[in-house]
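User: Sequence in, structure out. Go.
Assistant: Echoing your sequence, followed by the structure tokens.
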Amino acid sequence: MADEPRRTQAQQERRIRILETAMRLAGEGGYEAVQMRAVAEESGVALGTIYRYYSGKDEMLIAGLAGWLRRTRRRVESGSLAGDTPGDRLVFLLERSAAHAQNRPTLMGALIRALGTTSPAAIEHKLDVDTQLRALVVTALGPDRGLDAEGIARVIGHVWSSALSRWVSGIAPDESVQAELTHAARMLVGTPARV
């Protein structure tokens, strides 16, 4: 019984190595570069072990995105957002997130492609992405009782998905993700546009 927590910790560390490797490969070479054998070799985790955790690269990449959102939310919870009002904090968060995404077009393309999977194995991770994104937006808005934070988070999630998809497919310019997100945030929260 004393070995159980250690084994759980070791499993968690393996999962983190797997996801970090998958995200790095996607960032370097796109969706096609994320091959299960390459992830196994570069993460130092046996291929069979990876398949026990994840059925394929879509599931790994979506789980990696959920982890990134979870870490971002923790930073926001620690008070790392600038702004005096809920709208200011939300716009600040979205501007920084969009800039982060737009600096990684290869990774974002891979993530959008992975999110398009219809595999039942990915559903749990897609729900985690949705939960983490909503929690991130709600956290940024803070405890303002006059706002429908959950509703705003849902709409921002839809705008985020659409804007990223349009951008990575090449039908929208580079600055479009940030512009769409901040425009939506200002409309939803009533924050005036900066001049």
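User: And one key feature?
Assistant: The chain has a mean pLDDT of 91.
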